[in-house]
Structure formats: C-alpha cells, structure tokens
Design a protein that fits this description.
Blueprint (H helix, E strand, L loop, with lengths): L15 H7 L31 E5 L2 E5 L9 E3 L9 E3 L7 H16 L8 H12 L21 H19 L56 H18 L4 H5 L15 H14 L21 H18 L14 H4 L2 E5 L5 E5 L11 E3 L15 H9 L6 H4 L2 E2 L4 E6 L8 E11 L4 E7 L14 E7 L8 E9 L1 H7 L6 E8 L6 E3 L1 E6 L7
Bound molecules: CU-O-CU linkage.
CU-O-CU linkage binds next to helix 3 and helix 7.
Organism: Abeliophyllum distichum
Cofactor: Cu(2+)
GO molecular function, one term: metal ion binding
C-alpha cells in the first residue's frame, strides 16, 4: 500500500487523482481499484499516426528532426512468449571472439534492412529520439509530451526497448538465444569502452565518440575529470554503492518519481538514472559535435551501437537491485501503484508487428526470457570509511551561511551552506534539494557533500559524498523542468559522528560548464516510516 505522503508531490501540490476522488466518487464503484487513492490514469502509448517533429535544443539553438516510425494500423497486445531458450547477456569485456563475430553480423544485417523497415538500425535509433525529444504528445492531453526519462518509466521503457532490439538481432542471424552484451562499467575490469566497439571496420563502431575517452581511458562515473585512474576507479565504486544502496530510502528514490497521464514531463530521475547512467552518456558523447552526438544527447544516442550495451548494464542494475541486494539494506524494492504497472508503450517486434506492452509485464527479466552473466559486485560493500574527527573540525570551523538566507541559488559555482538537522540524535533523515529548476537542453551535474573540507574535490570515496543530481540534454514540453531529490543521510550520520550536531554543512559542486540549474531550497526532513515490499 502507498502511504499518503506520496500523494503530495515535491511542490506540495495534491495529486489530481485525489481531487477526482474528492468530487464524490465520479468514478463508478465498479472501476474502483483496490487502492482507492489510485484514481489518475497511467501514461498511454503514443499514437504513431500523430507523430510530429522531434526537437533537439542545444543551448537554445533549435534543430528539427524527423524520427517518426512507419505507421501501421494493426496493434496487438503483446503477450510474453513461453521461455524456451534463456538468453544470457554476457559481459562485453569477457565476450568470446565467436560472440563478437555473431553480434557484429547481426548489427550489420540490421543496418542493411530497407530504410523503412521498422527493424532497420536507424529506425531503431529513432525510437529513442521519438520517445525522448518530443515527437509524441500524450493522447488526449493537448500538446503535453510523452517523455520516458526522468521518472519511474525510465527502467521499464528501456527494458522493453532492448528486449525487442535483442529479439530482432537474434532473428536476423537465426539465433533464438542471442543476447545483447552489457558494458560492465560497475566493475574495474569493465571500466573502459569494450574493445569490440572500437574496431573501425566493425558494424559496432561509431566515429562520434569522445576521442580522449577511447581505451585505455577509465570511465569516469563521477565526471570529476580526475586524471588519476586509481582515484577514478575508487570514485566509481563509491558512486555505485551510493546510488544502489546508501542514498535511497524508497523504491521511487531509486527508480524515479511518479509520472501519470496529464503530468508534465520530467518529474524527476531516480538515483541510478541521474548517476552512472547520465555520466556514461556524457563521457562517451563527442565534444567535437555540436550536441555531443551520439551518446551525449538523447535524440542521437541510439545511433551508437554502444548505447544498447550501456543500457544493458543499466537494465542489469535494475535486476540486481530487485533480486540481489539484501533486503536489510534495500527494504523497499517495488512500486505497486497501478499507474506505474499499467503504463504502456508501443514497439515493433522482431516480425515487424506493432505491439503494445505494459510496465507490469517487464518487472521480471527471467519471465522475459533473458538473464545476465554473473559477475562480482565489487561495490556491494564499498561503504566509505568513517571520518569522525575530521568532520567535527570542519563543522566547527565553518562560516557558511544558513541555507534559509541564500536560496534560490543558481549553481554557476560551488555553494556551501549550513542546514539544520530535523532532530538531534541518531535520526533517520533525508536531505532534500527542492525546487530544482534545470535547463533541459544542457548537460547538468551537481555533486552533494556533507561536512567536506575541500572545495573542488575530485575524491568521492569518502563519507562526505552523499549523492548526485544530473541529466542528459533532451527536450520537454518546455525547456525547463522542475524536480527535487532526496538523499538518505542515515549511514552518513554514523560514519561522521555528527548526529548530535544541530546543523550540517552542505556543499554543492557543479561539474558542468556554467549555470543551467537553480536550487530553490535545501532542507533535512525525517524519513517517512519504512514500507515493506
Ligand atoms: Cu533513454 Cu540512456 O537513455
């Protein structure tokens, strides 16, 4: 069951469905779901015949793109086929030469399909553009866009997208066990662009990538720009621990915020989407290109075969989080809201048949017929060491202003403030960055530290690092989005021995160029009671 607090969003607005309920039960009793509060509607799939021009806005320069799929009239409700062969997705760094040969052949055939075949490579890339850059309006909701990022739809949409992509490739080479590789960027052995993607003669190659980040460069999940590869690896493992385990109180903190029919796009990304996921896009995107194509911008991301390998690992993170993380560390793993479960998308399947799929049907990767090669999770216990004495000293010597006196603040430089704790003692508390307003046309990344001494700090492997807000350039109905994030402080109070203090010092470190993000306020609240699930 949901608790009531979830019906009020970060801006304190009461959810539309409560208002409908309040109007004396306009919805007949027969329609009454088991949870009477869930009275809104889920996001509906786009109407392909109304697909419009997509837009790439790069620092306000407007570029129109046509990325609409071919239109067909017949749509089938997709039913997961019985699982006869399990597809096991391999780690891209460990894949055999035979596998690489097969994968290369499959992508090559996909590129050679007729341009108007919905399974063609470019058509597949365009799926991402259309769903992410405003080609589709929500049916019946005026000009309100459909957007599959920055909300709880992020994991389900991309899971279905890869599911059909994988089946199309398997079909093209007659192999019903074919599985996409995953880029194992959460393990030190996988922290370079996988070698199979950098051979210029391969169908897996893409020219438009940051040339300084080709192997052996180590992927920088923190985008700190640190030149020390060992530091970067330590940062990466800390980030993984933080976004998978440490920073989240509820499932929505990890998955993303609710997004229902009639809502504005971009209510807010979960920890995983805004963290490692966004950084990999930005790190691979090509700075020689106007909009950091291909991976650095959503409209073009699907044009790089590496995109699907990256997202196979993003998808793996969802599976790990659901089924492999101990429930004493991650107690709330499910979103049971019907507006989540019944949200739907359309895709062309491996037979070029248009199908309608629901979030409900993609919650279990094994039921969908694929699994992941088992690899160690070196971040699983990567909790930063306690730093009690140092944190005390930093706090005592801080002359940072109180948060209430300086917000709203545009983050064009490092900002440091004191924030009152909700309670003294070992309380279970959340740090809330509220009324975040971002320019959606820009890459944005801000790291959050508590009681940290060092201003431009490229070391994240310490207790003072609490989390990140970030986004990849894309398009929403307008060019700004409002959101908020919550970061769990419980572990940190233990690791820094500051639970007796009245205030903490919060440092916000922007990693991107220029402003583009304004924070409305910052506060600490007591965490809502534990939900089970
Ligand atoms: Cu749809 Cu990584 O983006």
């Amino acid at each position: 069951m949901k608790d009531d607090s979830q019906n009020v969003d970060s801006q304190g607005k009461v959810d539309r469905r409560n208002m409908l309920f309040g109007l004396g039960g306009l919805y007949g009793a027969a329609n009454l779901p088991s949870n009477p509060l869930a009275m809104a509607e889920p996001i509906k799939p786009p109407e392909l015949d109304k697909c419009g021009t997509a837009t790439n806005l790069n620092n306000k320069e407007k570029l129109d793109i046509n990325c609409c799929p071919p239109v067909t009239q017949k749509i089938i409700d997709y039913r997961l086929p019985p699982v006869r062969f399990m597809r096991t997705r391999p780690s891209a760094h460990r894949a055999s030469p035979e596998y690489v040969f097969k994968y290369n052949m499959a992508i090559d055939r996909m590129k050679r399909l007729p341009a108007n075949d919905p399974r063609n490579f470019m058509q597949q890339a365009n799926i991402h553009c259309a769903y992410c850059n405003g080609a589709y309006d929500q049916p019946g909701q005026g000009t309100l866009d459909i957007q599959v990022h920055n909300s709880w739809l992020f994991f389900p949409f991309h899971r279905w997208y890869l599911y059909f992509y994988e089946r199309i490739l398997g079909k093209l080479i007659g192999d019903p066990t074919f599985a996409l590789p995953f880029w194992n960027w959460d393990n030190p052995k996988g922290m370079t662009i996988p070698p199979m993607f950098v051979d210029p003669k391969s169908a897996l190659f893409d020219e438009k990538r940051n040339q300084s980040n080709l192997p052996p460069a180590v992927v920088d999940l923190g985008l700190t720009g640190s030149k020390d590869p060992l530091q970067v690896v330590a940062n990466n493992l800390t980030i993984m621990y933080s976004e998978m385990i440490r920073g989240n109180k509820t499932a929505e903190d990890f998955m993303g915020k609710p997004y229902r029919e009639g809502n504005d796009p971009d209510p807010g990304p979960g920890a995983s989407e805004r963290g490692s996921h966004t950084s990999v896009h930005a790190w691979v995107g090509d700075p020689r290109e106007k909009s950091q194509e291909d991976l650095g911008n959503f409209y073009s991301a699907g044009r790089d075969p590496l995109f699907y390998c990256h997202h196979a690992n993003v998808d793996r993170m969802w599976t790990l989080w659901q089924y492999f993380l101990p429930s004493n560390k991650v107690p709330d793993k499910k979103i049971t809201d019907p507006d989540f479960l019944n949200a739907a998308f359309v895709f062309y399947d491996e037979n070029a048949q248009l199908v309608r799929v629901t979030v409900r049907d993609c919650l279990d990767n094994m039921r969908m017929g694929y699994d992941f090669e088992r690899i160690d999770l070196p971040w699983l216990d990567y909790r930063p060491p306690p730093q009690t004495a140092r944190a005390k000293i930093i706090k005592a010597s801080s002359d940072a202003p109180m948060a209430s006196t300086i917000f709203p603040v545009t983050l064009d430089k490092i900002v440091r403030v004191q924030v009152p704790k909700a309670k003294k003692g070992k309380a279970d508390e959340l740090l809330v960055l509220e009324d975040i307003e971002v320019d959606t046309t820009k890459l944005i990344k801000v790291d959050v530290f508590v009681n940290d001494e060092d201003d431009n700090n490229n070391e994240l492997d310490k207790a003072a690092y609490v989390g990140t807000y970030a986004q990849v350039p894309h398009k929403t109905t307008s060019t700004t989005a409002k959101t908020s994030i919550r970061l769990k402080l419980t572990d940190l109070y233990d690791d820094m021995d500051i639970d007796d203090d009245d205030t903490i010092v919060v440092t916000l470190v922007p990693r991107h160029q220029g402003g583009g993000i304004t924070i409305g306020g910052i506060k600490i609240i007591e965490a809502p009671a534990e939900k089970s699930g």
